[in-house]
Amino acid sequence: MKITVIGGGTGTSTVLEGLKGYKDLDLSVIVGMMDDGGSNAVVRDEFGLLPLSDLRKSIIALSTETDSGILRELFTYRFSQGDGLKGHTLGNLLMVAMTEIAGSEVEAIEMFKYLFNVTGEIIPVTLDKVTLVAEYDDDSRVVGEHLIDEPKKDKKIEKFYLDSEAKAYKGAIERIHSANYIIIGPGDLYTTTLANILVDGIAMALQETKAKLIFIPNLMSKIGQTRGLTLSSMLKLVEGYVGRKFDYVLVNNGRIPKKAYKRYVDDGEHLFDDDLGFKNRREIVRADLVANSIMKKQKGDKLVRSLIRHDSEKMGKELYKIFRKRFKSILFSFLSFYR
Fold first, then answer.
1. What residues does 6 pair with on adjacent strands?
2. What are phi and psi of 286, to 5 degrees?
């Protein structure tokens, strides 16, 4: 069964971590290439390469190497001091070196797949160097993923686009067309989820594919992107960009850790009102998906990170139930036909 995940960042990594243990799944991930914050800013500006962080996270998420995890620890190690090194992960620096050795980011991915025993496919959404642009309801305009991701005040995005044309990487279109299921989310609504849909060819491929689409919304709102939204309004927004309705929506109904929840509320964030109902032409799956522990920030990490995360094992289990349920339905129909 072919499963394709579209996104980037920690949310996508969590989905991949949760699914890689199911050996009957053929996994692939289509990764966003618009990140320009932190270490990626240096990678883009000084080396002229596409951002590497989300590629690195996907490699780690799909890794099955078993040498006590030492390669994984090295690849994710973030420098907390040192001129020119602080804030960088060793993995990003190694990927820069491997890209120069191999000749391209795509070839570097293949080399690291070998080193980390990755069986799934890791595919950049585009090889074109582009930047995200957001226009707001106060007539302001912000250029760059990092600045859109961390605004000083809350405001509503009215227009969201790329600063130049970006053509979808051929492998991304092929995986969308051949997939049985495509998972979009969780992740920051605009800068992670919709950023990939903006790439020329992705929305059309999602409309054409016979795959079932699954949407996983974030657990909490985020300033400048999703404050004030409900689950239905968020779903409507994403479907507007995709040009097709989702077949499944996977919603958390578990309790958020109290200490982390209070910090979010104090910052002005909120849970999303579940106004999806039960009969809205999509199958709504509600389950406890939240991780019970609070994420800790790494030394040297300058960027704002989410404290509350989905639990990879819980999410993988619920997604696999969806896959198997439909597989059994198809098998039953097939056997019934030939009786």
1. 30, 184
2. -110, 130
User: How far is CA 56 from each of CA 37, 68, 203, rounded to the nearest angstrom?
Assistant: 15, 19, 25
Is the CA virtual torsion 163, 305, 22, 211 positive or negative?
Answer: negative
What's the burial of 153, exposed, middle or buried (CB within 10 Å: 0-12/13-18/19+)? exposed
Helix, strand, coil percentages, rounded to 5, for the chain: 40, 15, 40
User: Alpha-carbon distance 144 to 166, whole Å?
Assistant: 15
**CA separation, residue 248 to residues 207, 240, 251 (Å):** 15, 16, 10
Average pLDDT on 136-140 reads: 95
pLDDT category at 332 given cuts 50, 70, 90 is low
Cα distances (Å, whole numbers) of residue 254 to 149, 292, 311: 26, 9, 11
CATH (residue range 2-337): 3.40.50.10680
What residues does each domain of the chain span? Answer: 2-337
Distance CA 143, CA 122 (A): 27
Question: Which ranges of the chain does DSSP label H, i.e. alpha helix?
Answer: 9-19, 39-47, 53-62, 70-76, 90-102, 105-115, 145-149, 170-178, 195-197, 202-208, 231-242, 258-266, 312-337
More confident position, 99 or 75: 99
Task: Give the pairing of strands 26-31 and 121-124.
Answer: parallel
Q: Which residues contact 265 (CB under 8 A, 6 or more apart)?
A: none
pLDDT in tens, 294-309: 555 555 445 445 578 9
pLDDT digits (tens, 9 = 90+) for 194-253: 999 999 999 999 999 999 999 999 999 999 999 999 999 999 999 999 999 999 999 999
Q: Rounded to whole angstroms, how far apart are CA atoms 295 and 307?
A: 5
**pLDDT of 156 over the 80 cut:** yes
Q: What is the pLDDT of residue 301?
A: 46
Q: Cα separation of 30 and 168, whole Å? A: 10
Residue 85, C-beta contacts closer than 8 angstroms, at least 6 positions apart: 79
